[in-house]
Amino acid sequence: MATSAKLQKEPDMLSTHDRILEAATALFLQNGYAATSMNAIAKASGIQKASLYHHFESKEAVLFACFERGYQATVERMRTITGQNDQSYADRLEPLVGEIHNGIVHSSVGQMAPVIAETTSRYPEIARRFNDEFIDEMHNIAMAFLSEGMEQGEFAPFEIEAMDHALFGIPVNLTMCRSMFGGFEDLQHRYDTDRVKELHLAILRKLLGL
Amino acid sequence: MATSAKLQKEPDMLSTHDRILEAATALFLQNGYAATSMNAIAKASGIQKASLYHHFESKEAVLFACFERGYQATVERMRTITGQNDQSYADRLEPLVGEIHNGIVHSSVGQMAPVIAETTSRYPEIARRFNDEFIDEMHNIAMAFLSEGMEQGEFAPFEIEAMDHALFGIPVNLTMCRSMFGGFEDLQHRYDTDRVKELHLAILRKLLGL
DNA sequence: GTCTATAAGTAGATAGAC
DNA sequence: GTCTATCTACTTATAGAC
């Protein structure tokens, strides 16, 4: 236990397996899946291409592994936040929205959305898992929370399907714009993550009558 | 004139140049840019690969040409809609939103967003033009319209930057979800374009006090 | 303007030494 | 577990006949 904690303390101490996944994720995000070669992943991981095939049997397996670890943390934190019944629904809204932004805008899995779009026809299982284990779970947790808040009279009643789009549309748009235009310095201020989160909260509060 | 109109009447009558662009766009949308080979584009256009290079000097040139024609129509129609001063601001909102959905969700250029994300680091000029000639223009037209409507007292005052995200976030999210999950039949109803447009309008009306 | 043939390079993946 | 060397297939792009 102490050893493995120590091993993960510094990035240099990451296992080869994890270094590969970190490097691959960064490359997939920057250049997409097809334009990222196994050679490039190997070099970025500090090993030779043949060594890469000792850890993963194919490029497809690397892509799958990049997603494997990503879903759970965000979903768990969302469950924790919405489950805190000692707080009012209004008080739980901001941390919930913050966690949604973490998952979609800041986490590497959320940022992978364009890579999923690129690969969905070749590897539909990835898109399917992304939907089932991440998008769907987030939707269900958030929608249950908002429905309950409306039933309790803390939120003004509003078409729940519309709330769904209001809740997820804005961070998904943000993460898309950042992956398309993140390289342009003159556009950075428009896609400032903290600022957009505040604007998003203002929209949700208005819709929920807060 | 009569001849060229006739030529464009049936898909079989398209010029080779246009058939290439239609085929290339469809393939880029389905498989992404890097995974689409010039051979595949040639076959889908009904010609040989070498003939393709008679019409476009490189694969990069094909990608650029796929975007070239796409921006203007949506922007022009948005200008026409918002310019109709004989109608109330409230009455112009629905057609304006309809046109935004046309441009982002239904047009091939809007659907290309993930392809832009895939290629932005190799070909930043494409992402730049997509922003400057499409996104930026749509934002400017829509924001001017909403600001005026608020000044005239037809729309309730609301942070204009937030309106920006409320207006574009939902269709961009829709087009992303459709490109990631469009292949899954059980998810189709969630991403029904007409339904989402109605929900989007309901959100905007609520924010604008209509 | 379209074709067949081919060049030159890179991709994913494997063999086998250490 | 990592390496060098290599296989096979496919990539973008070009040459030159018709």
Description:
- 2 copies of one chain form a homodimer.
- Chain A is mainly α.
- Chain A folds into 2 domains: 1-57, Arc Repressor Mutant, subunit A, CATH 1.10.10; 67-207, Tetracycline Repressor, domain 2 (Orthogonal Bundle).
- Helix content of chain A is 72%, strand content 0%.
- The first copy, chain A, is built from 12 helices and no strands.
- Chain A has helices spanning 2-7, 16-31, 38-45, 49-55, 59-68, 72-82, 89-106, 108-111, 113-119, 124-151, 160-181, 193-207.
- Chains A and B meet through α9, α10, α11 and α12 of A and α9, α10, α11 and α12 of B.
- Chain A binds a DNA duplex (18 and 18 nucleotides) through residues 16, 37-39, 47-51, 53-55, 57-59.
Q: What are the SSEs and their pairings?
A:
The structure is a homodimer of 210-residue chains.
Chain A: H1 2-7, H2 16-31, H3 38-45, H4 49-55, H5 59-68, H6 72-82, H7 89-106, H8 108-111, H9 113-119, H10 124-151, H11 160-181, H12 193-207
Helix pairs in contact in A: 2-3, 2-5, 3-4, 6-7, 6-10, 7-10, 7-11, 7-12, 10-11, 11-12
The structure holds a DNA duplex (18 and 18 nucleotides).
Sum this structure up briefly.
Chain A is an all-alpha fold and 210 residues long. Chain A has helices at residues 2-7, 16-31, 38-45, 49-55, 59-68, 72-82, 89-106, 108-111, 113-119, 124-151, 160-181, 193-207.
Q: Which terms would index this structure?
A:
homodimer, 210 residues, mainly alpha, Arc Repressor Mutant, subunit A, Tetracycline Repressor, domain 2, 2 domains
